[in-house]
């Protein structure tokens, strides 16, 4: 916790009775989702890649990035037509993956967080000139576009305090305590956003830390809990609740009555935020479970239908690639499977005729679209 709230533990600021049932429900739904993911007919790593791409897109959209899932899937098979928005989403996707690998060497720490930030703002994207990978050394503030600091909705701590506040947060992240993991990451997220240690990209890095923390704690089997779509849906409430946690001030030196009132207000503010965060976790876990069930059903149907029309042991491999790249070219399949070009041409033609996939009809660089899967992922 950062220093405005002196000598107050989070235990005092959490309404455990109010949150009890919500925490149990969130833990249960996430556990079921994890089991469904691990036991999926489609490779869990493939689903994770697609789901994390969707998370990268939704989290980036919260910050104003304009891109669609179709554009991201198209980019994965043809990297020629890249826009600044697509780069931002790809950078987010890479940063999340790097975070998972980074946890093999480092705890969640300022060093790891700076590495993620450097990836997030690398490659000439917007914000790339705002010291990627380094904590800020100047004052920043949050407000509407073009507003001055005196009209800011929130002014983070002064830059000379950032290192010490981040050091305190790092200790809180890595200390063993009895706080439920979901409640703790809600607190970590609110405190990270309050410190706002970077000149740009704070929201996105804060959201990347959610699955990384839960994975690092062993709460989930992979960094697979993605909540940005729910946060984006209620974006203004998300910001409002976070802003409320940023400005809490409790002073032990106040008289006893004022101190009790301050505690009661802070308790409601933090519990409101945690309640909202838990709801996002429940909503997204349920949505991802539905997606897994639909994708599994689609996978079984696509395999069976394609084998009926094409009697080849290679068809399962072709379908696997199509599930990995729902928008694809012939060369994308050729780069993943050893199959003669003429044979593949015949397979794709029959899949189009059977309306399993669609094509854009071009004579050169033809693209194919597996809309049944694209619609699930959108």
Written description of the protein model:
The protein has a 3-stranded antiparallel β-sheet with strand order 1-3-2. The chain has helices spanning 10-13, 16-38, 44-62, 69-77, 84-102, 110-120, 159-174, 181-195, 202-216, 228-233, 235-246, 256-309, 315-324, 330-334, 341-353, 371-377; strands at 327-329, 358-359, 367-369. It contains 16 helices and 3 strands. It has 2 domains: 10-289, Fic-like fold (Orthogonal Bundle), CATH 1.10.3290.10; 310-377, Winged helix-like DNA-binding domain superfamily/Winged helix DNA-binding domain (Arc Repressor Mutant, subunit A), CATH 1.10.10. With 378 residues, the chain is mostly helical. The two termini are 37 Å apart. The chain is elongated, with a radius of gyration of 23 Å. Mean pLDDT is 93; it is low at 1-6. Strand 2 (358-359) and strand 3 (367-369) form a beta hairpin.
Overview features:
378 residues; mainly alpha; Fic-like fold; Arc Repressor Mutant, subunit A; 16 helices
Layout: helices, strands, pairs:
Layout lengths: L9 H4 L2 H23 L5 H19 L6 H9 L6 H19 L7 H11 L38 H16 L6 H15 L6 H15 L11 H6 L1 H12 L9 H54 L5 H10 L2 E3 H5 L6 H13 L4 E2 L7 E3 L1 H7 L1
Helix pairs in contact: 2-12, 3-5, 5-6, 5-9, 7-8, 8-9, 8-11, 8-12, 11-12, 12-13, 12-16
Give a short synopsis of this structure:
This protein is an all-alpha fold and 378 residues long. The chain is built from 16 helices and three strands.
């Amino acid at each position: 916790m950062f220093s405005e709230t002196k000598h107050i533990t989070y235990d005092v600021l959490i309404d455990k009775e109010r949150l009890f049932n919500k925490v149990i429900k969130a833990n249960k739904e996430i556990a079921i989702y994890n089991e469904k993911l691990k036991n999926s007919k489609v490779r869990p790593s493939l689903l994770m890649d697609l789901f994390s791409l969707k998370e990268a897109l939704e989290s980036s959209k919260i910050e104003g990035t304009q891109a669609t899932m179709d554009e991201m899937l198209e980019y994965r098979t043809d990297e020629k037509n890249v826009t600044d928005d697509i780069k931002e989403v790809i950078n987010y996707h890479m940063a999340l993956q790097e975070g998972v690998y980074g946890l093999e060497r480092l705890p969640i720490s300022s060093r790891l967080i700076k590495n993620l930030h450097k990836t997030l703002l690398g490659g000439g994207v917007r914000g790339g000139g705002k010291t990627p990978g380094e904590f800020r050394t100047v004052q920043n503030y949050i407000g509407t576009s073009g507003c001055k600091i005196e009209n800011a909705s929130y002014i983070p701590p002064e830059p000379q305090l950032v290192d010490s506040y981040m050091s305190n947060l790092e200790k809180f992240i890595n200390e063993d305590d009895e706080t439920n993991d979901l409640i703790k990451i809600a607190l970590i997220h609110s405190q990270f956003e309050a410190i706002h240690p970077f000149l740009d990209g704070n929201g996105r890095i804060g959201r990347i830390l959610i699955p990384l923390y839960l994975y690092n704690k062993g709460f989930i089997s992979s960094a697979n809990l993605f909540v940005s779509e729910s946060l984006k849906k209620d974006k203004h409430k998300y910001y409002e609740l976070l802003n409320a946690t940023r400005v809490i001030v409790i002073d032990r030196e106040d008289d006893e009555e004022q101190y009790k009132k301050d505690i009661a207000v802070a308790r409601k503010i933090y519990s409101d935020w945690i309640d909202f965060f838990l709801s996002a976790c429940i909503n997204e876990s349920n949505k991802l479970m539905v997606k897994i069930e639909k994708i599994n059903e689609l996978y079984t149907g696509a395999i069976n239908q394609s084998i009926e029309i094409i009697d080849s042991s290679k068809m399962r491999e072709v379908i696997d690639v199509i599930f990995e790249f729902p928008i694809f070219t012939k060369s994308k399949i050729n780069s993943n499977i050893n199959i003669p070009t003429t044979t593949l041409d015949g397979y794709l033609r029959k899949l189009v005729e059977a309306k399993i996939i669609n094509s854009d009809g071009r004579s050169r660089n033809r693209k194919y679209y597996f809309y049944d899967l694209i619609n699930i992922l959108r």
